[in-house]
Structure prediction request, 267 residues.
Amino acid sequence: MRQTRPSVATPAEKVDILGIAVDYIDRNGAVQFIARTIERFRQARAAGAPLPALAHVVTANSEIIMLAKEQPDVAQILSQAALVAADGIGLVWGSRLLGRPLPERIPGIELMEEMLARSAQEGWRPFFLGAAPGVAEEAKAVMERRFPGLQVAGVHHGYFQETEVPQVLQQIRQAQPDLLLVALGAPRQERWIAKYKEKLAAPVAVGVGGSLDIWSGRAQRAPQWMCDIGLEWLYRLLRQPSRARRMLALPRFAYAVWRERWTRRKG
Ligand code: UDP
Prediction:
């Protein structure tokens, strides 16, 4: 069950999880941060002023934290992101154990659904990039029906070659989106955003993993009760046993947190 907590509106404080800085922010705060960033960008665009740099929002889970420990480029991407939100019960659990509890888990898909609802009200236009051909179009149709007034600025599938990137970037720039959702899977989507952020001319980009598959109806999210007790990962493992190797990151993360706690206590 979600509890009401005071809103943390600004990503001012960081919580160190195994050397990676995660923002001390709750769901409301993350929504407000993204909304403010979009508004500031739109004002600059309307005034013909220089456009603010793209804000890269990462919704991080324990898998990406473990990856960042092994791959310096992923660590650098996380350290340069405008916001690193804790998507994943592991991070919230780890932060508690390490003595700096994060306010709550912010599931990336739910954060994006809130942003799409907000976009429908404010007239912001998101762009969907990623997933198999046809999926982004289906997700667009579903979400435009679900949030009346929502206008998706454009879509592109996620199976393009490196040589096609200029054309993809061009399509995104021409659409002038207010929010770019990149569904290429982690960490490909984070690398992609970091690599091209100067060429996107958008206020905010967020890696959204399998969200387009879920919105299109081609994949299902875990039942709510499993999400509530932090077992979404188990559902995904049962549905997609091929994820087993990737998921070894979870026990490795848990072990690393325990070890760090132990070392700190001794020190
Ligand atoms: N995907 C893509 N291009 C690729 C590889 C993957 O568009 O080259 C898409 C894939 O179709 C799926 C999403 O990326 O829609 C990855 O979803 P997943 O649930 O695996 O996300 P993760 O848990 O890796 O963030």
